């Protein structure tokens, strides 16, 4: 027992005034220098476990059990705040999920790092500035010298998280706890951050407790994985064992639904229910260049009736010179004109102010593409790429600074109010955040029927349509009289989809519809979307930061960065042979199970 | 930062101009005739006309407004129609008195409220935190004139420690000045302290929930120390806002306290001018009060970027 | 739906939290509501019954201490203090209702309109002008505006109510504006726009229900402020005029008897404080109940 760096025994956490614990009898251990991943979805209790180890549990929670740490006398759960503070200063450190809110906005980065050194007290006062610089250099902070004098708001998300890591490592801890350290970051930044954490932890020979919801992330960083579900540990094992031979039903389900490259006999993504038939991630498919994985993905497309379009058009989503836009005709196209035509669209935002004048922000710069009827186009980009702005313009919610947008017969950029109304009959949106996109004070029946109310349809008919739609998204019609807060995230997203489809639109625009959902729910919602797109013969525009999701769902893809289109074409082509550097980087950085497995074997 | 301050300064000037138009319009145009009001309803038309001519009231409103503003800019608030005396010296003297009263009160309120509110937040779950919270809630409900009456009954009429009314300028005798200052200042400050305590408490509670406090604790600071090093400056931003609003409210709110303690502050002058139907004085005093309120708002606005680098860099 | 037990359980815990906050808050709300009820009851009963006629002067019974005949004692004219407190409750409530009514009915639409205008390129400056005007109005505290009104018109309950109401407009405009901005920026309003809902429909269906809570809280706080303002004005002699009973004037008239008959100050002072406390507590309770921060967001 003394051998272990961390020993948690029978940790049970109960909210004050509640009967049922949120964490049941959690026991785990961590050897010195060992790197352990703690995996689980929202509500699994993984963060609570980490907070207990730090002695940072919120006051309204009561914890029982023991948490002992090598070098700390006694039970962390019962220690006084003062001894705990000493422990946190000397033995453990933590990196949090949100680097923006975890740093003091009113304090320079250098001072925030120096503070740790002062509290820890091993570095002489005069040496502190030099040590701060060393730390910033060790986390590969660009321009570490001036970074010392920067405030958090002057840095990017990735830089802030680097600073956070420098703070965590400043006291040379024996145990580093990372709580979803890359979840708030873009994928390309995430990749760097993960490498950096692995590198620094190895360099200072600290133990690592790495908390994440993402199986693919954990593989490269950890030796061992602990899987949590609903407040309990369900399985523990080496990364390899968990990935190739999961014992617990839930682990298998999580693994199967995390794998966006594997599909079941019906061409559907695996869910917790269908996970039994999942064979495990395919080795070596992660790089996206192996022929094997293309075969793997093939059945998905074959199951789709619109496949004819995606191959016949031969990549109608490519970037076109706006000047030759009208002249261009792909010979194979059997449809007369594309359903959506965007040419030369730019959107600049100008900041306002009495005396201020800033150069406009170019959210979109000369964007051109087109979409044929029945096509499934994915729009991929990181934060700030302009993908959401593009959606807003397409759906007529905002107007472009310049350029033309045509949807069907409607010129969106100059559309009159009635024209916009008829555009919205045909084009509906599913939004990202299932908690924000439903009015908390409306009943589900009113939410779903809102587009019909706007049309002036009679109540009877409206409710009949709502009922039909709720059944189509696999929700009980009892849901009609309830309010959004009575539903889980996945159910809310189904409600959102029902609302979008209730007018029977031709085009469905989905703005990151699954990025706020847990992995196991994600695959169910994606399967539902696939079904509905087929059943209702929809043209799909799917915006996402997640290449894996787009790859599964879309026949064609546009890659965006900083308001430009970097590359576009058929999804498989882009994945197999990315022409642009950025695309290659993006593909390489996207965590996939198969890639993760390949990296450890 | 400079642009931010310049921006605020321009807004201040614009607000001042609009406010002066409003005040002038209310006083000089709407109710008819200032001379008529000053002389009463029984005055003969000839007397009214004579007074009008004497003070230039027969000129068009635009000219009168212009003259009024130009006068104020050169420090001349005009002459009272009722007493015939110059208004400026009265305003200057009474503003000083009210200034001393109000600034001492807000200072005392801050000195009481910041430690008390912080303590109440830290001890939120203890009986002591709950007690502070409840007491401050009751304190808010007590009007300052009731507090003044209670203080007078206890400390002046019963114990005889302080005079129950009166004012002495500091130059006439510091001891006499201070002893007369205590009860009015305390009665103003107590209520404001109660309000401020609640804001400090909730600002500190908000800050304690912030992630960077958790980070500071993860660095090895105790909860209390994390609050002092990282929390209080962050909590200062909403507290400054409230203190600014309070100072502005007190300027006018002090009028009742000035009445009770017979203190020749600007509020007392205002009430006297209203009672005498001396519209020119009312107009000047109201304008001075509005000017001071706007100045306080400007100062608060300028304090933000000093406390918060995000606002500093936003401009 | 058994699609994701973990998210469902997270949803339940947030609902538990909501239920618990509701219970805890009721303490504040209930005390506030009880105090307000007592004052409303006093005012209503005064219409049908009071211990004495408020205008009856009884020189024999002047300046009496509390007794079975006069529960709260009598004033310098021998008038019954309890009767005057009951009549005073009418004025207090009337001023509050009229002032808050003015402020809600003018301030809330101004705030909503300013927020809606700010969405359109042509409306940005208009919205800015509205809010600037609002800020300037904020430079006239309630008491100052009421004194100005008393100077311009005759001092009285009417001008006092209107002045206090006008001074409270900016508070409502700000609350309504920030609430509306929040709602209009939400995804559910984007969804409503994408569903072809017109701007007025969005304002009625989405904005109003979602900002109603905040406006009610503000109304409760504004009511407390107007009680204080009326008392202060009457104390100065610039509010409710004799012979109409008003707590503020009772307090002012008690001043000359502070050393002999401090009870005279006690009763009106106590009731002013109770009224303010009642509305503040109610506002506090409602705030916690409607606070957007309390809205459950099951992610964690």
TrEMBL record, chain A:
Region entry Disordered, spans: 283-335
Highest taxon above the source species: Bacteria
SUPFAM superfamilies: P-loop containing nucleoside triphosphate hydrolases
Gene Ontology molecular function: ATP binding; ATP hydrolysis activity
GO biological process: peptide transport; transmembrane transport
Annotated ranges, domain ABC transporter: 6-255, 349-587
Pfam families listed in its UniProt record: ABC_tran, oligo_HPY
Keyword annotations from UniProtKB, A to Z: ATP-binding, Nucleotide-binding, Transport
InterPro entries referenced in this protein's UniProt entry, alphabetically: AAA+_ATPase (IPR003593), ABC_transp_ATP-bind (IPR050319), ABC_transporter-like_ATP-bd (IPR003439), ABC_transporter-like_CS (IPR017871), Oligopep_ABC_C (IPR013563), P-loop_NTPase (IPR027417)
Family as reported in the entry's similarity comment: Belongs to the ABC transporter superfamily.
Full protein name: Peptide/nickel transport system ATP-binding protein
Organism: Brevibacterium aurantiacum
UniProtKB/TrEMBL annotation, chain B:
Compartment(s): Cell membrane
Annotated PANTHER family: DIPEPTIDE TRANSPORT SYSTEM PERMEASE PROTEIN DPPB-RELATED (PTHR43163)
TM stretches of this protein: 12-30, 100-122, 134-157, 177-200, 235-262, 282-307
Name of the protein described by the UniProt record: ABC transporter permease
Highest taxon listed in the record's lineage: Bacteria
GO CC annotations on file: plasma membrane
Organism of this sequence: Brevibacterium aurantiacum
Chief location category: membrane
GO molecular function, one term: dipeptide transmembrane transporter activity
Keywords linked to the UniProt accession: Cell membrane, Membrane, Transmembrane, Transmembrane helix, Transport
A matching Pfam family: BPD_transp_1
InterPro entries listed in its UniProt record: BPD_transp_1_N, MetI-like, MetI-like_sf
Domain ABC transmembrane type-1, first and last residues per copy: 95-304
Similarity comment: family membership: Belongs to the binding-protein-dependent transport system permease family.
UniProt KW Phosphoprotein keyword: no
Membrane topology type: Multi-pass membrane protein
UniProtKB/TrEMBL annotation, chain C:
CDD domains: TM_PBP2
Main location (coarse class): membrane
Protein family according to the UniProt entry: Belongs to the binding-protein-dependent transport system permease family.
Positions of the ABC transmembrane type-1 domain: 89-283
The keyword Methyltransferase is assigned to this record: no
Keyword hit for Cell membrane: yes
A GO cellular component entry from the record: plasma membrane
Any single GO BP term: transmembrane transport
Location within or outside the cell: Cell membrane
Keywords (A to Z) from UniProt: Cell membrane, Membrane, Transmembrane, Transmembrane helix, Transport
Membrane disposition: Multi-pass membrane protein
Name under which the protein is recorded: Peptide ABC transporter permease
Transmembrane segments: 25-49, 91-116, 136-154, 160-180, 201-229, 264-283
